[in-house]
């Protein structure tokens, strides 16, 4: 049996700047030029004021850990050889939140023993099947 | 509107694995039993409110089901709020009756994910598959982790909910899973998505259930034998993506309950028994907090104190809930609320005069509350 196809992001005209910037080493988020609301993922209108004037802004890379889970069984066959693995909710210093992974953990230790709520993180873009995606390392407290 | 609309009848199929049964067949059986229970002829039904089968979306399901049931509704259709939909549909049906849009309404739901497909439950959330972010349990686990870190909620406290629901299911002849659970066995059950174990997760079930609603006036005129008045209802909603919620440990249950309690003119202390949606233990724990049955952050201690057991201050999920009676999304909790108010439940709470019922959908995206009385 051939290995399960690894999922790939669904990149469209709206989200292309986000993925292209990651490929160049930058994590962007969107900010409304009218009301200043900041967010991810990409939208064509501001979720605050519904205005159409939106800019892409580079994130500083500073972030904190809002919560995380550890998968002990794979819900997609492509992840079967990765369990146990973590998925995290991360909040950028600028406010937007995203789903990501905490990387750089000690594989000899339990994942949960190495993480805590609101832990400082910093951006470490990694490549997954040729796609640049945001990941985060633990940062000094 | 408090008490203007009543639940006149309830009906259900068996719960469990029912191979070879279509959702139309399961709905029809549940509706037949509910109408018989109400003592209302099918040709009096002029409202049909349907939650489509969660496991498989089907275009114009409400109209196909109406044809299957031989009902020509004046008002109705399908409503999509995941597991909150059934309680919400009871509210919409009540409003339709009060507004003169129909006289007798049926709310019905059936699904067959145990013998059919359950792919809808394992899908990715948003565009985040590449991070390995899949499945409904993971969304609840993400919320549970935050609750545990923020308030010190423990696995043993979550397990107390499973133990109570399984004990109640064990003494309910209709329950799908009638095997009691010890806390030790709960702790030994395998992690699915940490911090949630297998026994934090509800059953997967085939089955159908239905309720018949009408006005209190119709019930009096027609001599309905055991009408149960709807005292209050409410709803709340939050963002689709779990990651985008500004506060993971307050849920849409809060707004939903506030609306329902205000309509009923009751406070949480005046509720005698509750049916709290328990697709995962954390859901029930946080709903108890958001409803005001215990302070925020104290849900774990409240559940572990014995308060939610049959002999506690607030017995919950007296038929076993989603963890033991059936994994059906919510309508069974309304049926059990009706039985408690009629005094006919398998685990009847003596003297219970008010019942709060919670339904919720997605990953705490949607919440809906009903308060029943006598």
UniProtKB/TrEMBL annotation, chain A:
Signal peptide: none annotated. It comes from the Bacteria. Pfam families: OB_ChsH2_C (PF01796), zf-ChsH2 (PF12172). Residues 56-125 form the ChsH2 C-terminal OB-fold domain. Residues 19-53 form the ChsH2 rubredoxin-like zinc ribbon domain. Keywords: DNA-binding. InterPro entries: ChsH2_C (IPR002878), ChsH2_Znr (IPR022002), NA-bd_OB-fold (IPR012340), Thioester_dehydratase-like (IPR052513). GO terms for molecular function: DNA binding. This is DNA-binding protein. It comes from Pararhodobacter aggregans.
TrEMBL record, chain B:
This is Acetyl-CoA acetyltransferase. Coiled coil: none annotated. PANTHER family: ACETYL-COA C-ACETYLTRANSFERASE (PTHR42870), NON-SPECIFIC LIPID-TRANSFER PROTEIN-LIKE 2 (PTHR42870:SF1). GO terms for molecular function: acetyl-CoA C-acyltransferase activity. Residues 234-373 form the Thiolase C-terminal domain. The keyword Transferase applies. Gene3D superfamilies: 3.40.47.10. Keywords: Transferase.
């Amino acid at each position: 049996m051939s290995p399960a196809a690894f999922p790939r992001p669904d990149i469209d005209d709206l989200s292309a700047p986000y993925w292209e910037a990651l490929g160049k080493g930058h994590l962007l988020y969107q900010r409304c030029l009218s009301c200043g609301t900041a967010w991810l993922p990409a939208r064509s209108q501001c979720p605050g004021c519904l205005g159409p004037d939106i800019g892409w802004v580079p994130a500083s890379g500073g972030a904190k850990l809002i919560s995380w889970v550890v998968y002990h069984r794979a819900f997609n066959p492509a992840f079967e050889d990765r369990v146990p693995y973590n998925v995290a909710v991360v909040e950028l210093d600028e406010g937007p939140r995203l789903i990501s992974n905490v990387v750089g953990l000690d594989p000899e230790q339990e994942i949960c023993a190495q993480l805590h709520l609101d832990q400082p993180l910093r951006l470490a873009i990694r490549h997954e099947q040729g796609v640049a995606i945001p990941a985060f390392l633990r940062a000094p407290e | 509107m408090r008490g203007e609309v009543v639940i006149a009848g309830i009906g259900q199929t068996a719960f469990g694995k029912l191979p070879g049964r279509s959702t139309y067949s399961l709905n029809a059986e549940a509706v037949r039993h509910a109408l018989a229970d109400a003592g209302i002829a099918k040709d009096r039904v002029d409202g049909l409110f349907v939650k489509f089968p969660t496991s498989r979306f089907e275009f114009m399901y409400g109209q196909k089901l109406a044809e299957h049931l031989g009902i020509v509704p004046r008002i109705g259709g399908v409503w999509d709020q995941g597991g909150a939909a059934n309680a919400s549909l009871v509210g919409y049906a009540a409003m339709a009756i009060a507004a003169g849009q129909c006289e007798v309404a049926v709310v019905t739901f059936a699904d067959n994910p145990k013998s059919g497909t359950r792919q809808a439950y394992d899908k990715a959330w948003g565009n985040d598959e590449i991070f390995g972010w899949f499945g409904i349990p993971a969304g609840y686990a993400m919320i549970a982790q935050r609750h545990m870190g923020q308030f010190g909620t423990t696995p043993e406290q979550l397990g107390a909910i499973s133990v109570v629901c399984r004990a109640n299911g064990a003494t309910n002849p209709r329950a799908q899973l009638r095997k009691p659970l010890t806390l030790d066995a709960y702790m030994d059950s395998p992690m699915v998505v940490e911090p949630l174990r297998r026994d934090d997760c509800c059953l997967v079930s085939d089955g159908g259930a239905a309720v018949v609603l009408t006005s209190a006036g119709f019930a009096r005129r027609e001599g309905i034998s055991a009408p149960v008045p709807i005292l209050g209802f409410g709803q709340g909603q939050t963002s689709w993506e779990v990651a985008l919620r500004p506060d993971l440990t307050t849920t849409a249950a809060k707004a939903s309950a506030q609306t329902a309690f205000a309509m009923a003119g009751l406070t949480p202390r005046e509720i005698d028994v509750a049916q709290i949606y328990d697709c995962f233990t954390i859901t029930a724990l946080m709903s108890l907090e958001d409803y005001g049955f215990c302070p925020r952050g104290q849900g774990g201690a409240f559940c572990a104190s014995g308060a939610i057991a049959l002999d506690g201050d607030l017995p919950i999920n007296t038929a076993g809930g989603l963890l033991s009676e059936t994994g059906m999304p919510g309508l069974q909790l309304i049926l059990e609320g009706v039985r408690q108010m009629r005094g006919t439940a398998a685990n009847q709470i003596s003297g219970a005069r008010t019942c709060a019922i919670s339904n919720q959908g997605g990953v705490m995206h949607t919440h809906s509350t009903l308060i029943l009385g006598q």
